[in-house]
């Protein structure tokens, strides 16, 4: 990984510190915290995690549960911290208090009281006006003008046009500069996606937390899977093991067929994408979490009924598919961000690369496995439900590799994370380790962020040209 030009001090995760101290993950089973040894067979990984958390603790006085759960994958946590530290703490177009207020606005769209509360505290710590925390109506008009693009980025990013960008940049008392707006767009997508991670991993504030500075690190002594945690025995345990073997066999067959076949035609590729996109309409959670809007969240939300709507609905005029090759992160988004907000493009690119390539070559109880095909299927399925298509990818692989329960989980966490329940977390990959499920959530976080950024940055580019 490249080193950012700004030297980051130890404990660069201070942007994630919370006023409530250590957090608890309610998806632990049998009273056990997620373990640092879950699926991290690398030598020295536990020592690396310990060093990261110690640095953060020395710097911030506490380590929150987002860091604890991400710490199951220390390489990713390091990259995440550097990026978030730059977004919140380093030089940039926006003053610090407005950055935290934008984080509040973004998290509120998904009813994420955990992140809203955390950044309300941070907002006050950096000198923000307490009156603004009474609600969006008390914030300056310039920030309130972000509401529309915040709403679209959170739920239907494909609707963003250059006109939305133009409306924010037009000359006037409350106008944004292009550099300010790009920083705001990155912050909004960062916190929409982080809300997905918070709900996907079940991270919630401890109600009984008294604001102390102590933090109990994850237990390093257990490496059990959710299946064993939840006492899946008898036929249930055998079924869970069988799911692993079926996935291994399908990956092997797909790899063999890729070597033997001359290739699928572009027409067939397009057909398979449209089929997968249409089938995704049928993927929805059957049990809905009850997340009635709390007053400390509702006051930052306008038009609370506006939410994700399937990219393609039968009988409705669908927006055109976003062809990934027409506007790529590598060729377009990266350079645009780096030009207007130096160093952030580099750190985002590093973070995307780290999570996309992150592997321990394990699947459940199997070692020495090439998981690149599975990771790519998860990433591309997230982009698919947001209408983004890769011309060179065979979407038939998605159907082969992602079981229905995993698709339900992915779509819920990526599109309406506030509806995530413990049941849909436990129902997919029942014999996989907790860290492997956290790994899925890291892929969801970054794939979702990149998808929304691509739509937003394409609109900025069209405005500029």
UniProtKB/TrEMBL annotation:
Presence of the UniProt keyword Nucleotide-binding in the record: no
Main location: cytoplasm
Ranges of Pro residues composition bias in the record: 1-10
GO cellular component: cytoplasm; nucleus
Keywords annotated in UniProt: Cytoplasm, Oxidoreductase
Listed Low complexity bias regions: 221-232
Recorded family membership: Belongs to the sestrin family.
Region (Disordered): 1-22, 208-238
Protein's organism: Athene cunicularia
Molecular function as annotated in GO: L-leucine binding; oxidoreductase activity, acting on peroxide as acceptor
Catalysis: reaction(s): a hydroperoxide + L-cysteinyl-[protein] = S-hydroxy-L-cysteinyl-[protein] + an alcohol
Protein name, as recorded: Sestrin 2
Swiss-Prot/TrEMBL GO biological process terms: cellular response to L-leucine; cellular response to leucine starvation; negative regulation of TORC1 signaling; positive regulation of macroautophagy; regulation of response to reactive oxygen species
Residue ranges, compositional bias (Gly residues): 12-21
InterPro entries, sorted: AhpD-like, Sestrin
Superkingdom assignment: Eukaryota
SUPFAM superfamilies: AhpD-like (SSF69118)
Oxidoreductase is among the record's keywords: yes
Protein location: Cytoplasm
